[in-house]
Amino acid sequence: MSITKISDKYQVVIPKTNREKLNLKQGQKLMVYTIGSHLIMSPKHKNYADRLEGLGKETWKNIDPLKYIIEERKSWDKKTH
Q1: What is the pTM of this model?
Q2: Is the sign of the CA dihedral 27, 20, 22, 12 positive or negative?
Q3: SS (H, E, C) 7-49
Q4: What's the structural domain count of the chain?
Q5: Which label site among 24, 38, 41, 70 has the fewest CB atoms less than 10 Å from its CB?
Q6: pLDDT tens profile 48-63
Q7: 3-class SS at 50?
Q8: All residues at 6 or more sequence positions from 14 whose CB lies less than 8 Å from its CB, including other chains
Q9: Do the domain assignments include residue 59?
């Protein structure tokens, strides 16, 4: 955990260890929002498709996608007859 302070101009310095961990660069934009009493800042990505790539991959960890699709389509046939 790092600690920083808000300047009299409401500016905040992101500690070096955090900048390096997130590979932040000068001039890069950050998204800032609050959840309850927490302030969240995260890098704004140029391409959200790249950012979302692989999201939820753990959902399919123990499932064969082809088998799942075949079973799902079979259930559609049962519902229509």
Answers
A1: 0.52
A2: negative
A3: CCCCCECCCHHHHHHHCCCCCCCEEEEEECCEEEEEECCCCHH
A4: 1
A5: 38
A6: 777 677 778 788 788 8
A7: helix
A8: 4, 24, 41
A9: yes
